[in-house]
């Protein structure tokens, strides 16, 4: 199994997962033209994508979903709440998914995990291919026990560390936006991300990628400083950016 991102941040998010000749795209927060360009950079043509999974309806995750799906005849899967914000659904091959209910896309087994976020029916995804498990966890305001239980045994993990509390408090955002981002239905701060990492089985992680890092309210150096106490417990840690995302990370079955 391998996974990659063509961009991670408030201006657009999209993650690719490939296993056993199956390719899925999680979200598409870019225009079709921009998505095509970024996909080409990592060697994927949109026509090769088997399905687009959608986490929630915020524009940085859903902007290009309908247009890309229509242009390349890609099936789309989303919760009923999220689907209300998709454009021209009558023209889409759209399947509703239920929160916390497993489903399959060919050889991939997927669990849409309920998360606290200020959207209609948001989920994040656990993706299993054979013996390998990839967790994607962004756009989450609070780490719940439900989340910790689902993400315990990941071989690969993409998690957000959106903001530093002090930077957000002292930053340029209006108070209403600060409250939204930093609230229980907003985004994870660096300390919350550390708390989550300390409560899962880090020894199983082959690849940890930290993304959705705010360009205004955080920095990679602050994230590194905050999680420094666990870095020696993880084989590989990398950081996703808005402009480049991250290139392919490969997960291998450990005999």
Give a topology summary:
Blueprint: E1 2-7, E2 14-19, E3 22-26, H1 32-41, E4 51-53, H2 59-62, H3 65-72, E5 76-78, H4 80-83, E6 94-96, E7 103-105, E8 108-114, E9 123-129, E10 132-137, H5 145-150, E11 156-160, H6 165-170, H7 175-182, H8 190-197, E12 207-211, H9 220-226, E13 237-239, E14 246-250
Q: Overview of this structure, please?
A:
- It contains nine helices and 14 strands.
- The protein has helices at 32-41, 59-62, 65-72, 80-83, 145-150, 165-170, 175-182, 190-197, 220-226; strands spanning 2-7, 14-19, 22-26, 51-53, 76-78, 94-96, 103-105, 108-114, 123-129, 132-137, 156-160, 207-211, 237-239, 246-250.
- It has a seven-stranded mixed beta sheet with strand order 6-5-4-3-2-1-14. Strands 7-8-9-10-11-12-13 form a seven-stranded mixed beta sheet.
- The longest helix is centred in the first third of the chain and has 10 residues, at 32-41.
- The chain is globular.
- The model has no long low-confidence stretch (mean pLDDT 97).
């Amino acid at each position: 199994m391998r996974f990659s991102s063509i961009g991670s941040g408030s201006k657009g998010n999209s993650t690719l997962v490939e296993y056993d000749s199956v390719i899925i795209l999680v979200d598409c927060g870019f225009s079709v033209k921009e998505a095509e360009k970024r996909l080409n950079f990592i060697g994927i043509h949109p026509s090769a994508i088997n399905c687009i999974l959608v986490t929630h309806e915020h524009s940085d995750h859903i902007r290009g979903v309908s247009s890309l799906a229509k242009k390349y005849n890609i099936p789309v899967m989303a919760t009923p709440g999220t689907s209300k914000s998709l454009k021209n659904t009558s023209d889409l091959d759209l399947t509703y998914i239920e929160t916390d209910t497993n489903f399959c896309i060919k050889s991939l087994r997927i669990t849409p995990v309920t998360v606290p976020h200020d959207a209609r029916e948001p989920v994040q995804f656990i993706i299993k291919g054979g013996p390998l498990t990839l967790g994607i966890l962004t756009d989450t305001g609070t780490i719940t026990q439900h989340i910790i239980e689902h993400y315990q045994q990941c071989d690969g993990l993409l998690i957000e560390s959106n903001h530093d509390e002090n930077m957000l408090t002292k930053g340029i955002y209006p108070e209403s936006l600060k409250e939204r981002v930093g609230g229980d239905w907003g985004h994870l701060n660096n300390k919350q991300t550390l708390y989550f990492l300390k409560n899962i089985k880090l020894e199983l992680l082959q690849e940890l990628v930290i993304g959705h890092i705010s360009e205004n309210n955080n920095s990679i150096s602050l994230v590194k400083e905050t999680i420094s106490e666990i870095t020696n417990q993880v084989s590989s840690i990398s950081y996703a950016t808005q402009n480049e995302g991250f290139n392919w990370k490969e997960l291998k079955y450990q005999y």
